[in-house]
Amino acid sequence: MLLTLDLNDPRPLHEQVAGAIRRAVGEGGYRPGDRLPPARELAAALGINANTVLRALRDLRDEGILEFRRGRGVTVAERPAGRALIEQRARDLLDEAARYGYGRDDLIDILKELP
């Protein structure tokens, strides 16, 4: 899993990690039942504290995207919550739009104009 963090992103690191994992699941990088690398490995690869990664994983578990299985580690839930994936993409879009000076209402107008 190739995750990257944006040090200029104002969001807390655990939210960035959770968002990156949501995207990987949503885009098919991980399929239901696939096992994620251990939190320590993810933390080492990202250069952050393992507790930060664990917090992100717990948040995703609470959203129904991941499952914690004793002896098997962390796996993608059999039916990841689609709404959670869409919400993350919407948050990412809002963040990107803000960088270009667009607000929430501007995005709503753009979406209404789409076919």
Automatic annotation (TrEMBL):
Domain HTH gntR-type: 11-79
Molecular function in Gene Ontology: DNA binding; DNA-binding transcription factor activity
Superkingdom per UniProt: Bacteria
Key word Transcription present: yes
SUPFAM superfamilies assigned: Winged helix' DNA-binding domain
Keywords: DNA-binding, Transcription, Transcription regulation
Alphabetized SMART domains for the sequence: HTH_GNTR
InterPro entries given in the database record: Tscrpt_reg_HTH_GntR (IPR000524), WH-like_DNA-bd_sf (IPR036388), WH_DNA-bd_sf (IPR036390)
PANTHER family on file: GNTR-FAMILY TRANSCRIPTIONAL REGULATOR, HTH-TYPE TRANSCRIPTIONAL REPRESSOR YTRA
UniProt protein name: Transcriptional regulator, GntR family
Organism: Marinactinospora thermotolerans DSM 45154
